[in-house]
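Run log, item B.
One chain of 251 residues. Sequence copied directly from the ordering sheet:
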Amino acid sequence: MRMNAKLFGIVLCALAAAACSGNGDDTPGTGGTGGTGGTGGTGGIQTSTVTGIVVSRDDNEAAVVGATVEVFGTEISAITDGDGLFSLSNVPNGDVFFVTTATGNWGTVDYYGVPDETANGVNLRVVPDDEITAVDGALDDRTISESDGFVDIVFEGAEGGETGMISASSDAPFTFNSLEEPQIQNGIIVNALGEGELFFSSVDPAVGTVTATVEGVPNVTDCDVDESPGTTYPIMAKSITIVYAGCRPAQ
């Protein structure tokens, strides 16, 4: 089952989302009811209509007007209306990356299984520029450039100390401590709900795609990257690519 992305969970949880599900319970559905599965598709590919809403990852969780939502690798796109809502027709069924961008924000690259995880609508998100600037300013010897991408590994079921790596060069990964401050380290700090994030900045979009690996805490947790098409994730400039990892008690 798909997990929700936190996106700078603690600093943005005031600013953030998924674990504000706890993360504020960022359950999709605000964006309206999903479309029914289509019969179309060139070559017999089944398609569906996907509806949803784009929101800003800040204290207000405001709907974003004029955001662009695209189905990665296709020409399918839509622009959000005055309520932040969108509708995409003829979306291929299966694991699909949705690329969301908006002026004055960092975009996101997130995926859902269509239509199983989109039937009730999807909640996509962007991160205001000033929130990224605040994180940048809190980290020494680092400059986050809009020409680079981000990778956010979202852990669920973690206990603290889990680690992750990506296949591309990046700045040293950072997480958030209990004071809601970003700190550079290879492990993650988790909240009471057993969730946490590990961020990799300054990833060059020229690499095209990355893979990710995660490790649990020895004798405490086992973790795996899950629910991704081939575990390969697109990297785009001024966008945060979300990777999901699930952890469970070590066997």
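Observations after the first pass:
- The first strand starts at residue 47 and ends at 56.
- Residues 64 and 121 are 16 Å apart (CA to CA).
Flagged for discussion on Thursday.
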